[in-house]
Amino acid sequence: MAKELIIVLDFGGQYNQLIARRVRDLGVYAEVYPSSIGLEKIKELDPKGIIFTGGPQSVYKEESQHIDPEIFNMGYPILGICYGAQLIAYELGGKVATAPVSEYGRTEIIVDANAAGLKDLSSSTIMWMSHTDYISEVPEGFAITAHTANCPIAAMENAERGVYAVQFHPEVQHSVEGNKVLYNFVYGACKCAGDWKMDTFIAEQIEKIRAKVGNGKVLLALSGGVDSSVAAGLMSRAIGKQLTCVFVDHGLMRKNEGDEVESIFGKNGQFDLNFIRVNAGPEYFEKLKGIEEPEKKRKIIGEQFIRVFEREAKKIGAVDFLCQGTIYPDVIESGLGKSAVIKSHHNVGGLPDTVDFKEIIEPLRLLFKDEVRKVGLELGLPEYLVFRQPFPGPGLGIRIIGEVTPEKVQIVQDADFIYREEIAKAGLDRKISQYFAGLSNMRSVGVMGDFRTYDYAVVLRAVETDDFMTAVASEIPFAVLQTVMNRIINEVKGVNRVIYDLTSKPPGTIEFE
Ligand code: XMP
What we know:
Elements: E1 5-10, H1 16-25, E2 29-34, H2 39-45, E3 49-52, E4 78-81, H3 83-91, E5 95-111, E6 124-137, E7 143-147, E8 155-158, E9 163-166, H4 178-189, H5 198-213, E10 218-221, H6 226-239, E11 243-249, H7 257-265, E12 274-279, H8 281-288, H9 294-316, E13 321-323, H10 328-333, H11 339-348, E14 359-361, H12 369-378, H13 383-386, H14 406-425, E15 434-448, E16 451-464, E17 472-473, H15 478-491, E18 495-500
Parallel strand pairs: 1-2, 1-3, 3-4, 4-9, 10-11, 10-13, 11-12, 13-14, 16-18
Antiparallel strand pairs: 5-6, 5-7, 7-8, 8-9, 15-16, 16-17
The protein binds xanthosine-5'-monophosphate.
C-alpha cells in the first residue's frame, strides 16, 4: 500500500489534476484537495509534502482563497505554483504586485545555479507562464532562484524551511524541464522514496471498492470501450460475481467487436463476473428503418439503448450500485459535481432515471486516459482493447451517412477492418489520433471485369488531434492508401470507389454525422 502522499491544494487553477498526475508519474501518489480542507484534515492525511496550485485570483482580494499561515509551521515541505507561489510570498510577509508586463506562454527562465528547488535545470530553460500578478519582494529568509526578462522573481525558496515557489507552471507539457522541478520537490525536499505504481493503485482501489460495496450488488453498462472495460476488470477483481455487466450489442459495433467483448468478459473469459450480452441489432435496425436525419438517428440509438438496458436491469432487480467508467477528462468537460454523471450517461445513452440503484461508483474518476490504459494492461486486458480507437456511443450508425441497414453496416465493418489492418501493418496504428472507414450515401458508376457497376463509395478518415476539438487530416503515405483502396474494392462487395476525406475540423467534424 502507498504510504507516501503528496497533497495538491486546489486554488482554482486549470492544471490541478495535471499536477497530481505528474507527481504520480514520478512514482509518488498525489491527490487534489480543496484549499479549504483545514489543517486538522491535513495532519490526519500526513502527507510527505504539499503543493499549492495556481488560480485565477489575486492574493490581495478579500474574496480570494487564502490559507491558514500556520500551515508553514507544520513541518511539511511546500511548493507553490503561480498563484500558489504568490500566496506563499503574501502570507510570509513578501510582496505581490500587478506585473508591468504580463507573461503568457513560452518564456525563457534564467536559473540560479545554487537553487535546491531547481537543481539540475539548465541555466536557461523554457517554462510556461500565465500570470498578471508577480512576486515583487521575497519574504524574509527567501532567496530569488530564477528570473525572466520581465519577471524579477520567477522562483524563490527557503530551502531550510522546505518552502519553494515558482511563478511558472512546471506541470504543463511545454515547460521543457518542468518535471525536474517536481522531481526536486518530491524526492529532494519531501524525501519521498517513490512507492507508487499502477499495481498499488489497483490494490488500493480494490480495497476501497470492497469496503464500499460490502455484500451489495453492482450493475455496469459495458460498451466494450476502454473506460468501461477497465472499470469492469477492476470491479471484477474486487467483488467478482457481485458485479453484473450488461453489454448491449446494438449491431453497430465494428467487425468482430461484440464477440471480442464476450471473449474477454463472458463465461470463458479471464474475469469473474456475471456477463449478459444482449444481441439487440435487429431491434435497432427495425427502429432505424427509413431514418436519414443524423440527429434523429442518434436519438433513436440512444433511446433504444435505454430501453434495452432497462429491460435487462429489471430482470436483475434492484441493485445497490451503478458503476461507471467516468475518467477525469469527463469530469472536467462536464463541470464538477453531479454533471459529471450526465456526460458518461450521454456516452452510453443516458441511464439512471430508469434503473433502480442507490449510489454510483466511479473507480477511474481521478485518472487520465493513459493512466486508465496502464491500469487496463496491469489487469491483463488485451492490447487491442486497451489501445482501442475512440469509438462513439452510436457506433457505425453515425459513420453511415443516411439510412442505416444491415447491408451497409456489413460493408463498413469489412472496409474498416481492412483499413485498420493496413494501418497497423504500416506501423501507424498508435500514431494517428483517430481513423476509421465510413460509408457515403453516394453510389456511382464504375467498371469491373468489363461490367458496369453502380455501387457505394467508402470514405476513409484519419485525423491528427490533441483534444478532439480541432483536427487536421493525417498525411497517410499514398502507397498505404492505395493498398487499402485496392483491398476494399477487391474484397468488399458493394463498393466500387474509395475516397480519402481531407477535411479538417472545423469546418468538418471527425465523425460524419
Ligand atoms: P466529432 O465528430 O464531434 O467527434 O468531431 C469528436 C470525438 O468524439 C467522438 N464522438 C462521440 N463519442 N458519443 C461518444 O462517446 C458520441 O455520440 C460521439 N460523437 C462523436 C468522435 O469519435 C471523436 O473522437
